[in-house]
Specification:
Distance between the termini: 26 Å
Helix content: under 10%
Structural class: mainly beta
Shape: globular
Largest sheet: 4 strands, antiparallel
Number of helices: 1
Strand content: 35-45%
Number of strands: 12
C-alpha cells in the first residue's frame, strides 16, 4: 500500500549554491523565510519537492514538487513547471535527467488493489519542450524495485 500520510523523504525548503572553498551561499530555489520556517509558501516551486537533480551539462536544475517537475537554469532563474500524469492513488517515485539533457524520465507508482497487493509502474519521458509525456513502459509487480531509473533506465521484469 502506498502511504500518502507521510513522505519517505523530508521536503526541500531551499537549494543553495556555495563555492567549494566556502564563502557566502546563494539561494537558487525557495525563499529564505521558507528555509527558516521549514515550510514553503503556496506558490513556491519547491512545494512538496524532496530531491533535486543537475542536468548532465550542469546548466539546468530539476526538482520534484507535487504532481510535476520544476526545471530552471542552474542559477535558479527561468523556471518552468512540467505537470506529470498522476491519477488519483498514484505518486511519482523517481525521476532522472535523460542523458541528452533534452528531458526527464519519471516513474509513476499506482497501488493495485487485490490479493496480494501489487504496484503498477509506469515509466514516462517528459521533454523539456513541454509536450505531453511519452509512456515508455508499464509493469505490475509486487517488487518495489522492479523498475529503477537511477542513472539510466533499468527494468528488471520488462527486459531493459
Amino acid at each position: 500500500m502506498i502511504d500518502r500520510s507521510a513522505r519517505l523523504w523530508p521536503q526541500l525548503s531551499g537549494i543553495w549554491t556555495v563555492a567549494p572553498q566556502g564563502g557566502l551561499a546563494h539561494l537558487l530555489v525557495g525563499t529564505a523565510a521558507g528555509v527558516r520556517e521549514a515550510k514553503m509558501p503556496a506558490n513556491s516551486p519547491l512545494l512538496g519537492a524532496t530531491h533535486w537533480r543537475l542536468s548532465p551539462d550542469g546548466r539546468r536544475i530539476a526538482t520534484d514538487p507535487d504532481r510535476g517537475l520544476w526545471v530552471a537554469s542552474s542559477n535558479g532563474t527561468h523556471g518552468t513547471f512540467l505537470p506529470a500524469a498522476m491519477p488519483r492513488g498514484c505518486d511519482m517515485a523517481q525521476y532522472q535527467w535523460l542523458r541528452s539533457g533534452a528531458g526527464l524520465a519519471y516513474l509513476q507508482l499506482c497501488e493495485v488493489v487485490g490479493s496480494p497487493p501489487a504496484i503498477r509502474f509506469t515509466l514516462y519521458d517528459q521533454p523539456l519542450t513541454g509536450g505531453a509525456p511519452q509512456q515508455i513502459a508499464r509493469l505490475t509487480s509486487q517488487d518495489w524495485w522492479a523498475i529503477d531509473i537511477g542513472g539510466a533506465y533499468r527494468c528488471i521484469l520488462c527486459g531493459y
